[in-house]
Specification:
By secondary structure, the protein is an alpha+beta fold. About 40% of the residues lie in helices and about 15% in strands. The strands form four sheets. An eight-stranded mixed β-sheet has the order 6-8-7-14-15-11-9-10, sandwiched between helices. Strands 1-3-2 form a three-stranded mixed β-sheet. Strands 4-5 form a two-stranded antiparallel ribbon. The chain is globular.
Length: about 475
Amino acid sequence: MFESDELIAKSATELVAELRTQALSPLELLDALEQRIKAVDEQVNALPTRCFDRARTHAETLMHKPVAERGLLAGMPVAIKDLEPVSNVRCTWGSPIYADFVPSASDCLVEQVEHNGGVVYAKTNTPEFGAGANTFNEVFGATRNPWDTSKSCAGSSGGSAVALATGTAWLASGSDLGGSLRNPASFCSIVGFRPSAGRVAQGAARDGAYPSNMGSMMNDPFSVAGPMARNVPDVALLLDAMVGEHPKDVISLPRESGSYVDAVAEQRTPKRVAFSADFGITPVDPEVASICEQAARRFEALGCDVEQCHPDFSDVQDIFQTNRAISFYVGKKALLATQRELLKPEVVWNIEKAGEITMDDLARVELARAAYVNRAMKFFDDFDLLLSPATIVPPYPIEQRFVESCGDHEFSNYIEWCSIAYAITVTGFPALSVPAGFTESGLPVGLQIVAGPRREADLLSAAALYEAESGLAACVPMDPRAAPV
């Protein structure tokens, strides 16, 4: 019999092994999570919506099956970001417009996870429609960084990151357009993985899952869903449970022949690694840059050559900002026309920005994007990995809606401070944030690791080698800490 605190401290990989031998049951894990949430979540507000009755019913159904038929996760609890509908569980998208919406069907991602033995027990907090890299909204309020509860946990998958860091989740889903998996992972000292577009089925139209007035739910190739966990092997485990074709997602990719868990175990050492503190496109806090360069040098201890280099990302702002505005316009224009007063100003700005875009602008940006991706692909002909800071600053005060400046540079809009993340979004290549270290004041910093197109397996294997070398995965779970006096 395991004690609750002992279970909370274990990795998801360890617990799934115990579930497969029936040394413990999914119900024991749900009990442990419920106790932990009662103990710590009030301090951080990571899991505002919980569905333990639904979870226990699902767990009991699984337990009536032979162990071999319980799926890859074998009854492992999973928290789901509040942008992804779960059948019969309140889903708000962080918006007062949908504060009381209860879907009758689930998102593709949730269906995949549950089909593979995951048990959903909670929804994680997110900013309104995932817009803005600070997790607060008018429905549930702000989610606080457990390393210093006066600080932001970033976003938009902030609730997932905080739940993982505080031990109220072992596995959680996230999504990423401008860095929404990587930014909160960096701010909370956990791992957030952005896969290739289509690797994880998500967000496709399905009767009952999404409100009729929400706009198009067809997948945007810039926006992807992915796994978050406390360490790289656990991320690989959840990714294995997420991937595969889904009939409701027309761009979903077939499952690869090997598993990502096996790829981690294979320990594929990269040979040539590039590091850049800024990709030539953004200011970076000097302490963050230094911590990440030291972290990148850990690859030298693994036998890799580490060089200062990066692709040409100089036109990323034009490409990304234009495509982001179009995405918001397509998905949210109807809400702007009917419920503008309930939308936060950043969402309004992003929708209205699309009104300035002409067909000539669209043609220019699409041509530029093709050239941009081609340059990045050529870069990965010579390098196995590209490393950088995952975020350009350490966690900032929670009252700040977003980072307005870095050094002498004033950012032009609420999302520009995330350039170092969305420079990779535009390529479509897989990337993750893994802990790099801590500032002198004890705040987490993440290292972004990027691999070439559809090389998830190589990326996870290399990241696991780095993680073992750094020893930083042992820092969580932890109890929330108030701001130092």
